[in-house]
Amino acid sequence: MLHKIVNKRTRTAWMATAAFVWLTACVGNNTAARSAQSSTVQELNTIAVNADSLFRHVERQVELGPRTPGSQAHRLCVEMITNYLTACGTDTVSIQKVPVRTFRGETFNAENIFAQINPAANSRVLLIAHYDTRPWADNEDDALLHDTPIDGANDGASGVAVLMETARVLAPALHDSIGVDLLFTDMEDSGQSGGGDTEATWCLGTQEWVKQLPYTSENRPMFGILLDMVGGSDARFHREYFSDRHASPVVDKVWNIARRSGFGETFINTSGGAIVDDHLFINRAGIPCIDIIESINEHTGSFNPTWHTTADNISAIDRKSLCAAAQTVVNTILN
Q: Residue 121's CB: how many other CB atoms inside 10 A?
């Protein structure tokens, strides 16, 4: 069931084309590289994201506690996200509520949050992030901690922070010819670890959302961008395997924009891991979708060291990583 929360607001559209303000608000990782690339960056249409704002979005989610299905923190997180989107001036905000069953046999009401900027525009981009957190720290070395819910600062809150910041900067400014859809998915992280046939146990909210796509053939998004685990310390984002397989032109576009934006040292233009994530099911629904995710960490060879552990807390969040992801997304939409 889809519940509408807020209707269209009045907006004066404008487009920022200079990069000077952005260079002071959210910059690349290397001073020399920034200097060498500054003339190229200035050729991009851009609106500044703010590193402190991004970090605070993560912090507010973590302060609620683990946003596990059925918890008070989960309910408060839904309220926080929807209230924020309304305050930002997104045109519509709605919640899809649907019962889902986990591999452990538990049933919860998943709540997918869907917001739109310029819903009348046929040229659209879909942004996705999951807001639920892992109910179990099953990657902890200490087996006694395996049933401990995680804070999900990186795995959950970081992607949500990018979508919230994108809404903040684009809702009052985006040209009417471009539409942006923001999908905050639920029950992504309650899947079964390990090999075998476990794919269907993940991304439960997204699997339900694609069954009721809110689009016609005329306004289906040109492409989607999923953001997951984008706030880790000194994160590097490689080209995720399924993204390249199903939407390689989108990967090319985003990684090129990242390089031109001064984030070439963060967005690494080589192959990464194959990740079962929300984008997999959105691709199968016919929307080319990529995953910006850290999948080849230099210490683990895969995900960030805090993945599915109690160390996935606010102390592990890197403003530079958040900023690189968010500014790249904004610049991709505007160019």
A: 17
What does the alpha-carbon distance between residue 151 and residue 137 come to, in Å, rounded to a whole number?
10
Q: Which token pair is 277?
A: 């994530």
Contact 208, 184 (CB under 8 A): no
Q: How far is CA 200 from CA 192, 196, 239, 311, in A?
A: 9, 11, 23, 27
Residue 296 CB-density burial (10 A; 0-12 exposed, 13-18 middle, 19+ buried):
middle
Per-residue pLDDT of the chain (335 residues; tens, 9 = 90+): 333 333 333 343 333 333 333 333 675 444 434 444 444 555 899 999 999 999 999 999 999 999 999 999 999 999 999 999 999 999 999 999 999 999 999 999 999 999 999 999 999 999 999 999 999 999 999 999 999 999 999 999 999 999 999 999 999 999 999 999 999 999 999 999 976 789 999 999 999 999 999 999 999 999 999 999 999 999 999 999 999 999 999 999 999 999 999 999 999 999 999 999 999 999 999 999 999 999 999 899 889 999 999 999 999 999 999 999 999 999 999 99
Cβ partners under 8 Å of residue 331, min gap 6: 44, 45, 46, 257, 260, 261
pTM for the predicted model, two decimal places: 0.91
Closest to 149 (Cα-Cα) out of 312, 316, 317: 312
Amino acid at 307: W
Identify the three-state secondary structure at position 237. strand
Question: Read out DSSP for 88-153?
Answer: HT-SEEEEEEEEEE-TTS-EEEEEEEEEEESTT-SEEEEEEEE----S--TT-SSGGGTTPPP--I
Structure tokens given for 108: 């919860």
